[in-house]
Each structure stands twice: as C-alpha cells, then as structure tokens.
Amino acid sequence: MGQTTNLPEGFRRHGAATSVGFHRGLVATVDGAGRNVVLLWLYDHRGGYALRSIDAETGDSTQLPMPFDNAGDCPFASILSSRNRFYTHFGSHFVEYDPAGGEFTFTQKTAPRTAMAMAEDDHGVVWSATYPDCGLVSYDPASGEFQDYGSLNDEDWAQYPRHLVVDDAGWVYLAIGPTTGHVIALDPGTHQPKPMLSPDERQAGHAVVHRAMDGKVYGRPGAGDAPWYVFHQGQARQLDGKPSFEPVQQIAGSQGLMHGTFPNGERLVECDLTERTMTVEDPGSGETRAIDFEFTTEGPLVMSLAAGPGGTVWGRDRLPYAPLHVRPSHRRMVGSPRVSPMERPDRRRRATVHRGLSLRCAPTMGPRPALDRYRAGQPRLQPAHPGHRRAARLPHP
C-alpha cells in the first residue's frame, strides 16, 4: 500500500488500496502436536483465497491457498467437526482441512454453488446445504464417501438454506428463505426430498430448524408469530406453543463464525486482522497475552470514492470497510480510519452493513494510526437503526 508508479498518458498506479485483512469463519482448536491454533478462511478481492493457521502461543503461522479455482466466490458457512476437521463449501467445491497434518485432505467439485449451512450428524457425516438451488451434499470422513443429491426444491427465486440439521433417525432437514420460508427433508433410505410444510403453512421470510438433544428437530416457517413444529422421521406436527428443548451444540455457523474457546479452556479474546495481533486469555488466572502474526493479502475491492478537502480523494473498501486516502500532491495513498466518503468535504459519515451503526470522522485531521484516532474520539461510533444492510449515507449536519 502506498507504492506509486507513473504510467503512460498521465495515469498513476497506487497499488493495493488497503492491506487490511478479513476472514469468513474462524475457529480455535489444536494442531497435531496438541498446540493451540487459530484457523481462518481468508478473504480479499479475489474471494476466499486461503486458509491461515496461527499458533496461539508464538504467532508462527502458515497460509495455504485454496486447492481449487474459487471463481470469485467465498465462504458463507463452515464447520469444525468432532474429528477436528475444518470444512467449508464455496465456488462449487467442498473442502476439508486437517489441522493435525496442516493440509487440505479432501476436495470435491459439486453442483453450484455455495454452502449457506453445514452440519454433522450422529455418525460423523458432514452435510452442506447450498445456495441458490437448495442443493445438498454429504461427506463421510471415515469411509471417504461423498454424495451430491442435487437440488431438493424448486423456486423461481434464489434459495438460502441457512439452517441444516439431521435428526436421530438420519432424516436431513433444510430450512430456506428469504422469499417464503419452507422446510425440506431428505429421506435417508430413498434419498428423495419431502416437503414438511403445505403451501398454506409457508410464511414470508426465513424458516428455521434446530436439532434437540431428544433427537427431534424443532422449527417454524418464519419469525414473529409463526407457529412451531416438531419434525421427526420425516413427519411434521404443529405445536400449541413455543417448545422447550436443549439444542445440540456444534461448532458451525455462517461467514461470521467466531469460535474462540480452545480445547484446554483458553479463550481467544480478539483476533485483529488489521493490526495483525490477537489476544488470548487464561480463564484460570485471568491473564492475557498478545500475539503478533502475519498473513498475505492483495486487499479488498474498492466500493466508493469521493473528493475531499485539500485535493484529497477518500474511499472505502468492500470488506472490512477500511478506508483509503489519496493525496495527489504527495503522489501516494495511505490507509485511514474505517470511514468512507460522504457529500461534505470536512465531515464523512457512513453506515455499516451490519448492526445498523454509523461512523463519523473529520478528514481534515489527517491520517493517524487507528488507535490514536480512537483515543481522540475520532472516528466516533454512533448507533442507528438496528437493521442489517446499509441503506443510505448522509452528510454531516
């Protein structure tokens, strides 16, 4: 970042806009020697490009490129299995990483395209439900058998199967949305799909399903006042109210997966890919240690640009929303606090994509290290609407 070269016809190449990093799933676990490690699916403008394994004591790390062409795609779901294997599924490829050996141990091309949920059944088989056609695949790490069941449900809109569970009888349940919630089951004997809800029972939004310790599955077709159902052995029964159940715990989640507890009880308090440092806490003593680490990235996509004071140009990237700050007079580009361009030149305000928050800064303060700006109250984090997506940007009053 900041390395500028002159090009023909008056153009200049400033290099990568920002060198900050971003992950699409993180877990704390152990390697083959029993050492605590942090595993991350790394993401930049190329999509999901590598897995990084970081020693939680020394900061020593290794980075492995993904063993397939990601076609610009990236992880939206991952799972750390009971066998201590880390899985994801994107770019129409299912992949397994084994931290014991520090290598990818299985890769399989699939029908398009990207897992929205992953789960492990009672026999250790790993399942993956995919966008956009409600696809389903399974992988048995014990036998090496992989099965692609194709699409389980037809809609005229892209389907997000954000919930995936398996009951104690081996029936698989996918909950889809967001246009109209639905629950689809897969018969373990015939491998044929079976809809669990009638057209009249479906509701707008996302359906949800949860595997319980009693072996059954509980779910509903939407949020709000949507009724609850119990699913078991491919049968559905509507309940009178919200059920009480103990959910089965798995280390799985969306692109925001953050499992920070190591097997020995230590806890990953923070993993900062901007400052390239992480903090680990000993729960017994309460003491923490900071560990520096490194990784490589080509930087994220640039999403917006605007003119600022003094002939500067301000912008922001796609993820993790770090800004860029170009000073043409200095013929260089520098990183700045995590802000993005607004309409007024002396104030910049933006809304984040998550949690409906906004950031405000004054570009005339000039670039400073991020921590100095936080101490100075610059930028300032201000709560806004508790929605999910950024809807608008406004100039500072």
The secondary-structure class comes to mainly beta
Give a quick account of the main beta sheet: strands, pairing sense, barrel closure: 5 strands, mixed
Low-pLDDT stretches: 336-358, 366-397
Q: Please state the overall shape, judged from the principal axes of the Cα atoms.
A: globular
Q: Please identify the top-level CATH class of the largest domain.
A: Mainly Beta
Roughly what fraction of the amino acids lie in strands? 35-45%
Q: What is the count of β-strands?
A: 34
**CATH architecture descriptor name of the largest domain:** 7 Propeller
Mean pLDDT: 85
The separation of the N and C termini measures 33 Å
- Please give the order of strands in the largest beta sheet: 6-5-4-3-24
The total domain count is 2
The number of helical segments is: 1
The CATH topology name of the largest domain reads Methylamine Dehydrogenase, Chain H
What key attributes describe this structure?
397 residues; mainly beta; Methylamine Dehydrogenase, Chain H; 2 domains; five-stranded mixed beta sheet; five-stranded antiparallel beta sheet; 1 helix; 34 strands; 43% strand; disordered C terminus
Topology (SSEs and partners):
Elements (H helix, E strand, L loop, with lengths): L4 E2 L5 E2 L8 E9 L5 E9 L2 E9 L5 E5 L11 E4 L5 E5 L2 E6 L4 E7 L4 E7 L5 E6 L3 E6 L4 E7 L11 E4 L5 E5 L5 E5 L6 E3 L12 E4 L5 E4 L8 E4 L2 E4 L12 E4 L3 E2 L7 E6 L4 E5 L6 E5 L9 E6 L5 E5 L5 E5 L4 E4 L12 E4 L5 E5 L8 H6 L4 E4 L14
Parallel strand pairs: 3-24
Antiparallel strand pairs: 1-2, 3-4, 4-5, 5-6, 7-8, 7-23, 8-9, 9-10, 11-12, 12-13, 13-14, 15-16, 16-17, 17-18, 19-20, 20-21, 21-22, 25-26, 26-27, 28-29, 29-30, 30-31, 32-33, 33-34
